[in-house]
Amino acid sequence: MSRRTMALLSQWTSRVFSVDMDGETVYFKIHDTQTGKGGKEVLRMFGNIQKGASCYSLLVSSGEKIHSARFHWKLKDKLSTALPPQCRFSPMCSFLPGVRDSLVHGYFLQAPSSDSSATTERLLRQWLRLDDPLLVCSYLHEENTPRWIQHLWNTEQNHGIVPSEAPESHPATLNLINSDVFYSFQAARDVLQKCADIIPEAASVLELLPCDGDMEARSKPDFPIIVLEGLDATGKTTLTESLRDALGATLLRSPPPCLSPWRARFDQEPPILRRAFYALGNYITAQQIYSQTSKTPVIIDRFWHSTAAYAIATAVNGPVCDLPAEGSELYRWPSDLLQPSVVFLLTLDPEERKRRLKDRGQGETKEEHELDLNQVFRLRVEEAYKRISGPTCISVDASSSAEQVLRQVLLLIKAKRYL
Ligand SMILES: Nc1ncnc2c1ncn2[C@@H]1O[C@H](COP(=O)(O)OP(=O)(O)O)[C@@H](O)[C@H]1O
Ligand SMILES: Nc1ccn([C@H]2C[C@H](O)[C@@H](COP(=O)(O)OP(=O)(O)O)O2)c(=O)n1
Q1: Structural domain of residue 191, as residue ranges?
Q2: Following DSSP, what letter does each residue of 29-95 receive, concatenated?
Q3: 403 CA distance to ligand 2 centroid (A)?
Q4: In terms of domains, do 84 and 33 share one?
Q5: What ligand has the least distance to the C-alpha of 315?
């Protein structure tokens, strides 16, 4: 048994478990059945489970963050292909309330018939024999009672299940720092360095990064640095190009074009790798800004706001009120990342944005497709954008014509004396 598994087991009864089932998150804890404290109340989730179904939970118990994240990511494909088609699986996690980095991810499985449960059990036992970093439990309905028992494999421990209240902050916020959002160049670079031997593309990205010495704070830029932010199709590209022409500025973007060959590769990886890649893109763009800002104003298409807002809104997967509260340290600007003079956040009515996406006729990224399907995700991204601290961020209604939006932004730039 690995050290990480032993550590998890030693905290087992203090942990809260959560399952995302049918758009709802159910939290539960366990109690020692021997003491009679066990759950008299049946969880709604378990109450809804089909009679005769067998249930299992799998939690990834690897101690190494990147390995654990990649294993969890691939486990989803493994479950979709290997499980009998009638089996359902839902995302689940376990955490110690309020304890940073205590979150572990996994899946909750339901096998509706004895056949499917026999196949599922066989598979799980096979995977465990392969030394997969998994903690497996089965859930048993205690006969003639409304109680469910959690049976922890390999330890033969049984515990009763009791409902638990939702934690004060969304469990994903416990592990956000350095797994979803990176607040320094070094923290993001560490992730790529650690996986360079398994992902050759990471080595290519590392070669493009600035040296440590280049990251030191520079003197105040001579010309303004203006960032345009907003969801896809809000008009960023259109406006950045017209601002470039109107101000005689240099136009840059993040991620920078030199990272394009590797973007699709990192988009397929779990959040820790994907978000580290985008975080590093900002530092490369920052170097390019430094080399231009003594000569011309600089306009940038997406920067840190995009990196942090999409990362937070993806990790925290509930309603907008589940986001970290305004003022949370999770919205802070990385202390070693250049701060622009101003950020304009383009906002657009969802219907108009959809119309523009359609008119543009381009394939959407998977994430953008999800934005359409998932209005709540879109709302979370927009709200997270607004909560990020650091440079002044001004929301601009981008629903009028391109010329009017340009005029409005030029007026703001002049009125606030950014030029
Ligand atoms: N103010 C505007 N009014 C109407 N259409 C616009 C406006 N700004 C941009 N568009 C159109 O909407 C689409 C998306 O704009 P684009 O600048 O590519 O957005 P983004 O860079 O934010 O994805 C494009 O087809 C563009 O021509
Ligand atoms: N500076 C940046 C830019 C984009 N990202 C991420 C955030 C989202 O996952 C995607 C959004 O990119 P998308 O391709 O949809 O955006 P555009 O087409 O450039 O408007 O990229 C980032 O993390 N940091």
Answers
A1: 185-415
A2: EEEEGGGT---SSPPHHHHHSPTT-EEEEEEE--SSHHHHHHHHHHHHHHHHHHS-TT-EEEEEEEE
A3: 25
A4: yes
A5: 2
CATH number at residue 197: 3.40.50.300
- The reported pTM is 0.94
pLDDT at 17: 97
Please tell me if the CB atom of residue 230 comes closer than 6 angstroms to any atom of ligand 1. Answer: yes
Both tokens of residue 30? Answer: 């366990």
Total domains in the fold of the chain: 2
Assigned domain for 331 exists: yes
209 and 163: one domain? no
- Asked if 138 and 208 sit in the same domain, the reply is no
Let me know: does 47 contact 254? Beta carbons within 8 Å: no
| pLDDT tens digits along 320-377 | 999 999 999 999 999 999 999 999 999 999 899 989 988 887 655 656 666 566 789 9
**Centroid of ligand 1 to alpha carbon of 360 (angstroms):** 8
- Is the CB of 409 within 6 Å of ligand 1? no
The protein residue whose alpha carbon is closest to atom 7 in ligand 1 is 402
Q: How much is the mean pLDDT over the chain?
A: 91
